[in-house]
Amino acid sequence: MENIIYKIENELDQLSLEEKNEILRKLRDNIDDIDKELVSLISKRTLHSVLIGRVKRSLNLPTYNPEREKEISKRISTYVEEPLSKEALLRIYERIIDESRAIQREESNKGNIFNISSNKMKIRLKKLLSKKEFLTIALFFFFIFSLLDYTFFSNNHYPGNSPVTLIVQKGEPFSEIVNQLYSKKIIKNKFSFKLVSFLLGAEKKIRPARYYIVNDLSYYKLINYFLNGNGDYLKSFLILDGSGIQAIASRLQSEVLIDSAKVVRLSKNKAFLSSIGLNAPSILGYMLPEKYDIYERSSPEEALRIIYNGFKKFISDSLQNRADRIGLKIPQVITLASIVEGETNRKTEMPYIASVYLNRLRIGMRLQADPTVEFLQTGKWKRLNYSDLKINSPYNTYAHKGLPPGPINNPGKNAILSVLYPANTRYLYFVANGKGGHNFSVNYDGHLKNVENYKAWMNSSKKN
């Protein structure tokens, strides 16, 4: 090339036509090679521009950045060489930048429309990093990966038998869970467990449950067990007002995975009832209707103990003193409350119905409560008939004076409080009014009128 330049500058007029054409051909060949290289470089520059556009889009930045383009123009002007002038060079780059911006905009509007392979974007590391810098970064990442591997995947071995039971209570802070794990020697390092929990987002996701932790779990596997394992989770179990033992036992099995048959048998077990401080033939009546927190697969003993503790907590000293003042013992209160519960689900009526039965007890009148006879029925509920009222049982309050031997269901708080704090009335009778409530009367004549009114309502309902 230097020989060609010399000939053009010094011998061009002396060269033959053939020699001039040969020089022209070689210069054009060189330009073709330069164009090829130039196009390749422009393509690489444009590919970088496309990637920059994608990054801008992820950052919600505009495609057009005038400050950046001014910076490019200023830098490019320092590269100028003859025969190009600075103005000519800037005009060329202005067009290149315009096209790059247009491609970025197209990418932004249509999505990733260019398939950029890694081969097109190869950058030699030696151009970016020195050997010393490369080794420093490599050693840093090796240290980080080793630390993470140790933190995440090294096994924790604890002494003693496997598995170890860990109970997470409702509302228990994460820090207390960590303290439990450490005190039971399930984990070796609190910080490592907290770090892995944080990285996996598990700090607020560990559910209340009984967990059975096998030996030699890594921090990662331990947290995964907490999040996805088969612990016995804490369930909120609701007892409905007026429920019987069989219904509660059935729902304990379906909702909390506790054997219903064992619950029914245990509810009448004298030794168990004595162990929880209940002097009664059955736990019926003392399973206070409310919500209880019970772990899945708890023993029937544990479940019934939790439920009975709810009853004991409700029957405070003040309610016990109230029962003493009105001349009733707590078992009598619960028995009468179960009858009130069987008569109505209207909370506002309960104190009035309770007053009727308390007035009857006071004068020695039979309670004649339908729910006590319904309690004696087997199978599905049915309307009572005259023969049912002759059943020979101490629970038949049509045949026997006073309260039945025990509760006929598990009365709710409102029914219990209605017996302890009844309405101040002289009512001795009540009958349904056909509207979901009852009509009350102080004597039998008034009662008969209410009965006739109810029958008339029934007859009109049948006609309609």
Summarize the amount of helix as a percent range. Answer: 40-55%
Query: What's the β-strand tally?
Result: 8
Q: Per the principal axes of the C-alpha atoms, what is the gross shape?
A: elongated
The fraction of residues in strands falls at 5-15%
| Class from secondary-structure proportions | alpha+beta
**Mean pLDDT, all residues:** 87
Flag low-confidence runs. none
Q: Strand order, main sheet: write it out.
A: 2-3-5-6
List the quaternary state of the chains: single chain
How many strands, which pairing sense, and closed or not: the largest β-sheet? 4 strands, antiparallel
Integer count of domains:
4
Task: Report the C-alpha radius of gyration, rounded.
Answer: 45 Å
Summarize it:
By secondary structure, the protein is of the alpha+beta class.
List the helices and strands and how they pair.
Blueprint: H1 2-10, H2 17-58, H3 66-77, H4 86-110, H5 125-128, H6 131-153, E1 155-156, E2 164-168, H7 174-183, H8 190-199, E3 209-213, E4 217-218, H9 219-228, E5 232-238, H10 245-256, H11 260-266, H12 270-275, E6 291-295, H13 300-314, H14 317-325, H15 330-343, H16 350-363, H17 370-374, H18 413-420, E7 429-432, E8 438-441, H19 444-463
Antiparallel strand pairs: 1-4, 2-3, 3-5, 5-6, 7-8
Helix pairs in contact: 2-4, 3-4, 10-11, 15-16, 15-18, 16-18
